[in-house]
Specification:
The chain is mainly beta. The protein contains one helix and 30 strands. The chain is globular. It starts with a helix and ends with a strand.
């Protein structure tokens, strides 16, 4: 027995140095963060694009639909239309920084020059213009029926709002703070973007997107995608637009120059909103089945991640370096050619876009209580 113990001890000693040199494989670096607004679950899903898993959920009040990045790229602004509040989030840490009382913020967008925040109130039939820095209400328009989505002109002189209930587009003069004109456009207009001097609008009551010339107010058919034509999004490289059909359930790739549909992806589940990562992959919410889609147009690869009920708005926060070796910012897309189109079109891509917010990526940690200003006495966010 003694001889056996000595032998085992010797073998353990021999194995010791080798064991000490054995190290765990390197951890997979964190992927881009994907924010998904679950309008039916009063929550925001935070996803890791690398592992394609849900990290955690951020609770909100009642019903979140759309989100935007602030003009300096430092925060995400989420509209809780049912809770009448804006949530300001740190896009790196995924934590709530503060909350502000705002009347029914269904769709929201900043003007290209960063001066104004315009909010469309679908439920209350109003369009609100706020001072971007202070959130001071500058003007409220009663605008029936169902103000839905917003797009600006590149010079920030005009805001254009689809009126879903009346089948029209309203043009708002931001300097005069008045409605200049209202144009019939077609049944149930929803998504709207500025694209090369015209407005492109999705008609949920038909199969097509139409083009509206804001100077002549002429309306023409731009392209067809399928029943429930809903919204469209310019790819960062500026070569294509991606349009969604919620009823026929597809995503169409559209040539940005000719507006010809070049490819159609049949996507069951009701694709709704789209965001892009820096590699051009499409991330889309599937409204009817509670999932988020990853679609790589270059390879055709698809993957889905389960999220909350009725996911709507979506945003990609890069966790990677620029070519200069700096962390990419939440505003990375504003430095790319596609920035000339969209709801917040820039006259030229921003030279500082994508690097305005240069803080180092924060680790994924559980959310902690944050003291906020919810429009009255300070309260604790839980």
């Amino acid at each position: 027995m003694l001889r056996r113990s000595v032998l085992l001890s010797g073998l353990a000693t021999l194995a010791g140095p080798a064991a000490a040199q054995t190290v765990a494989p390197p951890a997979t670096p964190p992927g881009d963060k994907i924010f998904v607004l679950n309008s039916g679950d009063a929550s925001i899903s935070l996803l890791d694009a690398g592992t394609r898993t849900e990290i955690r959920r951020i609770p909100v009040l009642r019903e979140v639909h759309h989100l935007v990045v602030t003009p300096d790229g430092s925060q995400l602004v989420v509209g809780d239309s049912g809770g009448n509040e804006l949530f300001f989030l740190d896009p790196l840490a995924g934590t709530v920084l503060r909350r502000e009382r705002i009347s029914n913020p269904y769709h929201l967008e900043y003007s290209p020059d960063g001066r104004f925040l315009v909010v469309a109130s679908l439920r209350r039939d109003q369009i609100d213009i706020y001072e971007a820095d202070t959130l001071r209400l500058l003007q409220r328009f009663r605008q029936p029926d169902k103000p839905s989505h917003i797009a600006f002109s590149p010079d920030s002189a005009w805001a254009y709002v689809t009126l879903q209930g009346s089948g029209q587009v309203a043009a708002v003069d931001l300097e005069a703070r008045s409605t200049a004109w209202i144009q019939d456009i077609g049944p149930e207009p929803a998504g709207i973007i500025w694209h090369r001097g015209r407005l492109l609008v999705g008609l949920m009551g038909r199969e097509d997107f139409v083009a509206l010339d804001p100077r002549t107010r002429e309306v023409t058919t731009a392209f067809r995608v399928g029943r429930g034509a809903h919204n469209l999004f310019p790819a960062p490289d500026g070569r294509h637009l991606y349009a969604t059909s919620r009823v026929d359930s597809r995503i169409a790739q559209v040539d940005a120059e000719t507006l010809e549909v070049s490819r159609v992806f049949e996507i069951p589940g009701g694709p709704d909103c789209i965001a892009f990562d820096p590699d051009g992959r499409v991330w889309a919410t599937l409204r009817w089945i509670g999932r988020t889609l990853m679609l790589d147009p270059a390879t055709g690869e698809q993957a889905q991640i389960r999220v909350g009920r009725s996911p709507h708005g979506i945003f990609v926060m890069p966790r990677r370096q620029t070519a200069e070796g700096r962390p990419m910012g939440a505003d990375f897309a504003f430095a790319m050619p596609g920035a000339r189109s969209g709801p917040r079109p820039l006259p030229q891509p921003a030279t500082a876009g994508g690097t305005i917010f240069r803080a180092a990526p924060a680790p994924d940690v559980p959310a902690t209580p944050v003291r906020v200003n919810a429009g009255g006495p300070a309260s604790v966010w839980r």
